[in-house]
Amino acid sequence: MDAGSIAWLLTASALVLLMTPGLAFFYGGLVRAKNVLNLMMQCFMIMGLVSITWVLWGYTLAFGPSIGGFVGGLDHLGLAGINGAEAQSFAMFQMMFAIITPALIVGAVADRFKFTSLIVFVALWSTLVYSPIAHWVWASGGWLFEMGALDFAGGTVVHISSGFSALVAAIVVGKRSGKLDNFKPHNIPYVLLGTGLLWFGWFGFNAGSSLAADGIAVNAFLVTNTSAAAGALMMMFLSMRATGKPSAIMTATGAVAGLVAITPASGFVGPVAAILIGAGVGLVSWFAIQFKNKRGWDDSLDVWAVHGMGGVWGALATGLFASAAYGVGVDGIFSGGDISVLTTQIIAVVASIAYAGIVTFVILKALDNTIGLRVDAKDEEAGMDISVHAEEAYN
After folding, report:
1. Where do the structural domains in the chain lie, given as residue ranges?
2. To pair with 191 at 20 to 30 A between CA atoms, which of 79, 200, 244, 323?
3. Helix 339-368 to helix 161-173 angle, to the nearest 10 degrees?
4. 236-264 per-residue burial string, b: 16 or more CB within 10 A, e: under 16
5. Segment (H or E) for 80
């Protein structure tokens, strides 16, 4: 890597780190006022915790020498042997992905998950779910990597893994107390601020995944913005069709869904495909939210519909629209490729859903049977800010 590429990767790392505080604003605005501080603290706790676990063992499990294509070896415990600007900048960049992925899950169990249990859950989940899937997809020797699965910046590794884990968590932990219709967002400007920070940081997420200041990074930057715009507009129009009014929350949700869906494809598609991917995920996530509501799943902040299903659509759309003309990978079906590309994407999607869902369920049941997952009913009623932190967001 030349000096310019290292500088860009460091900048991209900072942009991706900013996404987690952005997520804190996005999620914080969507919960009730008595829980906003707790939700934000969960995101900030994860920034600290995963930064440490990634250095100690997360990185080597993800990117160490492959053990059977499933997980990395322990050669790089404590980042041993990761020396020099190129290796350290890559490890730092990947750390930021490892941080935000479990933070996405907290939106599904907002208002009711024990803070101490969340600390243990995140440490276990990052170790047992995130690092192995990252190894499968991104590390030389990983079994999906060797199959040719396409995931430029984290459709399977980040969004499918967290989105479906979030759904499992919401079901295992159970519904919030009270009528869900009464749980209205307390601060929509926070939601829009968080969306803006996520959109801004996502340029580092996707364009940084080129690992160089080159044409692939420029194209990834362009299609990231394009898909986000298409997703935002699609959900805005869908909300207008449903209620006659353009919803700020649904427009923001559509933008995030558009960012999710373009993530696996951002190194493989052009701007026209990005419009189709962004508009498509607006539809996918909209109907996934309606389906979730009909099923009665209390995924508080629609993590599964936006990240899980958005990641599925993005991974499959990569198999449809990928084009070697954009510098990386092979051609998808609509670019003259064959069905094998889409077939590999389907295998990657199914494997990621199954593994993340099963292991997450096992972790949660083990914690529920030992230290417990939910706060007491009286603490939930009082609000997580006071009962957990003895502090209030607003005085």
Report:
1. 3-389
2. 244
3. 30
4. bbbbeeeeeeebbbbbbbbbbbbbbbbbb
5. none
Quick check: 181 pLDDT over 80?
no
Q: What is the pLDDT of residue 329?
A: 83
Report how far residue 201's alpha carbon sits from residue 52's, in angstroms, rounded to the nearest whole number.
22
What 3-state DSSP class applies to 67?
strand
The position carrying tokens 């053990």 is 67
Single-letter code of the amino acid located at 2: D
Report whether 288 contacts 334 (CB < 8 A): no
State whether the Cα torsion 227-232-236-239 is positive or negative.
Answer: positive
Tokens representing 326? 């954009």
Q: Residues 262-271: pLDDT tens digits?
A: 999 999 999 9
Structure token digits, residue 9: 């990767």
Angle between helices 161-173 and 84-105 (to 10 degrees): 30
Residue 123's nearest CA partner among 54, 175, 199, 77 is 54
- Residue for token pair 């490890």: 91
71 φ, ψ to 5°? -155, 155
Burial of 77 (0-12, 13-18, 19+ CB in 10 A): middle
Q: Which uninterrupted H or E stretch holds 332?
A: none
Find tokens 């009913």 and name the residue: 377
